[in-house]
Amino acid sequence: MKFAVSRYVVGGILAVVAGLLIADGDIKGAFKGDLKTASEGLSRYSDATLSPSEKGIVYFAQGDFSALSSDTLKVSAAPWVVLTASLSLFAAKGDLEQVSLEAIRNIYRGFGFHTPQKIENWPRALAEPDLTYPVGQNVGLAKRFLPPTAVTIANIGCPACHSGPVYDENGTPDPDRVWLGAPNTSINLEAYSNAIYRALLTYSRDDQKDLLWAAIDKLYPDLKLRERYTLKFVVLPAIRARIQELEATTGRLLPFKSALPGLTNGLDSLRVKLGLESHSTIIENSVFNSIPELGDRVFRDRFLNTGTYGVPDSEAPNSTEPADITRERLRALAGIATFVTIPSMGVAPEVAISHIGDMEDVMEWMQDYEPQAYPRPLDESLLPAGLQTYQDHCSDCHGTYNDSLTSPELQSFPNIHVDVGTDRARIELTGGDIADAINASIYGPYIQGRAATEYTAPPLAGLWSSAPYLHNGSVPTLQALMYPEARPVKFRVGGHSLDLEKVGIAGDVGPDGVWRYPEDTSPWMPSEEVDTTAFGLGNQGHESEFAPLDDRQKRALLEYLKLL
Predict the structure, then answer these.
(1) What b/e sequence results for 384-398 when a residue is b if at least 16 CB atoms lie within 10 Å of its CB, and e otherwise?
(2) What is the pLDDT of residues 170-211, one digit of tens each?
(3) What is the pTM of this model?
(4) CA separation (Å) from 49 to 46, 53, 321, 526?
(5) Element containing residue 451 per DSSP (H, E)
(6) Would you call the peptide bond into 408 cis, given omega within 30 degrees of 0 as the criterion?
(7) In whole numbers, what is the pLDDT of the chain averaged over residues?
(8) How far is CA 214 from the centre of its chain?
(9) CA angle 499, 500, 506 (to 5 degrees)
(10) Is the dihedral of CA 472, 478, 484, 486 positive or negative?
């Protein structure tokens, strides 16, 4: 089978470029190859001087996976200059005086993207990364002499979802410092995509072109003539045409809801990319996925909480030990991970496959990666009982650790698929049609699609900073998970502080039954409400696993889990 191509932002850019900039002659002869570029952030690093793990963190942080091209502009990439000028005007309600580069940083932070001053776990031996753009926004200038074309292209990258703020001993997040590999429990891709749509709808119109160009000139006074002409005669007409098409069909950028803060909707994105859903028809019922911490993920032989993406010939649960994590295994995992770039970054399958070597380096870094350590002293008197409780009640699903009470290390991970009573909407929507489409594609040799029947138990590294919990992010704290009667029906998420004792989002249930943030805290980005009565967001499950434990065992287990 072939992957269906859907258009989200700019459609048919190559054809438009050729048609406008080459009036006569052989268009095919003059327009050879694709318009493409590399992320600006990669330019300061030389592969020859880096170890595989160092290459991995560099590529994870700022690698583009060939997703900055005219092909991805048809799918998920965006022309950075037009995008940021439109978003700035939209946020400022058309007030040109408020348009600035600093405002762009604040706008992206408002969607949960990190705009830090420092990456806390960046290797000291490496040059500091370029933090000009929001973390997870890869940007590069693509240009060609004939036809005279230039576009600054932006596309999403790995750390947009896989980086989190550093937390202090009070559980207060510092958004100016981030930890690569931690989950971004605040990123709001739904708000981001909706804002892009409304901004482009408003400021790509002919009657707003003077204001848009004034914003572009203010933000990018050194914009070259070639890019200016490309934007004016190619990109903006294409955007206007595409927005009009969307207004006549779905009335939104994407045909599905992208999720809540800290959650993603890769399932619907994949279904559209596979041609199993139409990009012009609204998908009514969507299910979301809690973004995982990357610690110990190389122990897994299947990815996603449904286990949909697997190493070939790994259908039966296979226990993984440290000795099993060889270069060959990392390459197999890299084959799976590159598949994710197809629905997330819009690259073609053959392009994704070409980056398995880069992803193999990322896996080398993930093997060395350590989550941020719990920032407060632990009650050492509870740790032995916590370890014993974990071994007796949790290790069969979540893995066996050594006996260390300071730095536990995973010794065996069962790769088990189990039903613990959690919301089954995601299982029911992840059917055999997805698995069949994956297995029949050119990715067949690199990935084994699996029809979901139950959820895959995850490793628990970095659990203390990963709230909210369960596969759909429906429980705000580990304490509430252990005491099901304390699980709130509604709570807020996004820009939150952590309660380091309850282990999870800081807050409490008010008289109206809604979990709210403490009055003395100020979220670093707008929060949204999670309603666990909504489709796919049920907070049930995992009750029977905690039922045999008394209060002291639960308290000890909670303390031990902070170590992982």
Answers:
(1) ebbbebbeebbbebb
(2) 999 999 999 999 999 999 999 999 999 999 999 999 999 999
(3) 0.92
(4) 6, 12, 31, 42
(5) none
(6) no
(7) 90
(8) 33
(9) 5
(10) negative
